[in-house]
Amino acid sequence: MTVLKTSEKPAEAARGRKDAAEGSSEALQLGELSEQLGYVLKRAQLKVFENFLRCMASLQLTPAQFSVLLLVEKNPGRNQTEIASTLGILRPNFVAMLDNLESRDLCARIRSTNDRRSHILVLTDQGKAVLTRAKKLVATKHEARLNDLLGSANRTALIAMLSKIANEF
Amino acid sequence: MTVLKTSEKPAEAARGRKDAAEGSSEALQLGELSEQLGYVLKRAQLKVFENFLRCMASLQLTPAQFSVLLLVEKNPGRNQTEIASTLGILRPNFVAMLDNLESRDLCARIRSTNDRRSHILVLTDQGKAVLTRAKKLVATKHEARLNDLLGSANRTALIAMLSKIANEF
DNA sequence: CGATATTTGATATGATCCATAACAATTATC
DNA sequence: GATAATTGTTATGGATCATATCAAATATCG
Q: Three-state SS across A2-40?
């Protein structure tokens, strides 16, 4: 339930007093690191998640929770296994997530009549309302930031490349 | 020390038998999710790390360990705090990482003579040798894959955009 | 039909990663 | 020279991720 990371720009953190005095200490050379796909990907991902959490602070939604709500809205009537596995969440770990969302009355489990083993997932009215507000926040505060930073065309290209990596790498 | 994730393509995982019979069950609609920056970023990052681990299986190096070796090589004579904070690793968590690398004789801590509190970090000869081999593996097996997938120009553009996000988001 | 296997949601549990507080030794500051 | 700050370290808790296992329900197959 962490929502905000106080964190500091990694590089600036350690640089302290004695830089000017000693002369040997300055910002470290990242070298080849700054060209390593994995390194820069991970760093970008952390920043984006951090920003997402800030934008969603009023709704207290994590990226994972948001993705669940989105997927349930788009695919009502699916069971836990289907939703979880589509998101790459293992079933055991999905239980607590749902307990949380259900306790906040954002979604509900309904025993399926066809298959009484499975729980159909649906958004509650409040869940729908919250999701609508969440989408607005994401669009105006979060994703808008990408356009400011990269421009609309680049934003599209970036998402396309990341999707390609996610699917075909 | 996990090295390989057996994992399965998330979407395909749940789809089972009764699809054809029932007719209602098919692949779920990702909807807006596939355009969510955070979602696609995270997914891509997982895939890339997974591939990295596979490529490095023979050397048993994680992305984090590789980044430490790279940074120490490029900045010899720095202490733990400097290396760790540059990588966004908290000092307490860096201790175990170094214990590991040192136990494998890849790098060494040396008490600084200027400041007897701090440990200067250096690569051992074996550490240098391993890093050289690691770089080759990364270049030929890992990063090469990106070129195959996106083309060289796009690869460069992607890294540039991710860097921008990591630094300015 | 009935025995066996499979699936679903759930629990328990462990590994790994991330973050904070506190400590001894050393150094900086005033 | 007293006090504050820094370095590496330990201890610890939370979050995330993965595996094994279970009971209930369903599917499969002889």
A: CCCCCCCCHHHHHCCCCHHHHCCCCCCCCHHHHHCHHHH
* Tokens of residue A123, six digits: 């958004």
DSSP strand E in A84-163: where?
107-111, 119-123
Kindly report, residue by residue over B14-58, the tens digit of the pLDDT: 444 344 434 456 789 999 999 999 999 999 999 999 999 999 999
Q: What is the CA radius of gyration of chain B?
A: 21
In angstroms, the CA A22 to CA B165 distance is: 33
Q: What is the rounded distance in angstroms from the CA atom of residue B37 to the CA atom of residue B165?
A: 11
What token pair was written down for B41?
Answer: 């970023």
Query: pLDDT, tens digit, for every residue of B124-162?
Result: 999 999 999 999 999 999 999 999 999 999 999 999 999
To which residue do tokens 């136990």 refer?
B103
Contact A118/B at CB under 8 A: no
Q: Distance, angstroms, CA B124 to C1' C26?
A: 27
The tokens 């050379």 sit on which residue? A29
Which bases of strand C sit closer than 7 A to a protein CB? 7-13, 15-22, 25-29
Structure tokens at B157: 């553009």
Q: Are B108 and B121 in contact (CB under 8 A)?
A: yes
- How many Cβ atoms from other residues are within 10 Å of residue A56's Cβ? 21
B144 in contact with chain A, both atoms CB, cutoff 8 A = no
